[in-house]
Amino acid sequence: MKMETQNTLPPIEQTQLFNAPIEKVWAAISTSEGLSAWFMPNNFEPVVGREFNIDAGAFGVQPCVVNEIEAPKRISFQWGKEWTITIVLEDQGDNRTQCTLIHAGWRADGVTEFNMPQSVVRDTMGKGWVGIVAKLGSYVEA
């Protein structure tokens, strides 16, 4: 167990406050149409255990499985073999919603399906999630 802990990298966490009601943000993260608008094309359905795919462009179609749905607060899915994406929403009142996206499952010695070190991919994706979560914010605030 201790060995595994030393071998993991911290999850990527990106938190932003949106000027949008939690129900609108929930619709943007819990439907295929919503996810496609700010993230990537997909065939997501909000059903625990449901398999779906994300079209990651140059990185191909990625297999995913829904792990958790707690409307309108939390959604989590497995992305590929090792990653978990969790999005947590908190109603801040006055039609404001705090959104935290967590990308976990990084291993220090891990390699992606494209033979890239996870430590390198994690840094790139960490920067990428900043823009993606901002895009979600623009979508729900429109």
TrEMBL record:
Query: Residues in domain Activator of Hsp90 ATPase homologue 1/2-like C-terminal?
Result: 19-141
**What name does this protein carry?**
SRPBCC domain-containing protein
Q: Please name the source species.
A: Paenibacillus sacheonensis
What does the similarity note say? Belongs to the AHA1 family.
Q: Which Pfam families match?
A: AHSA1
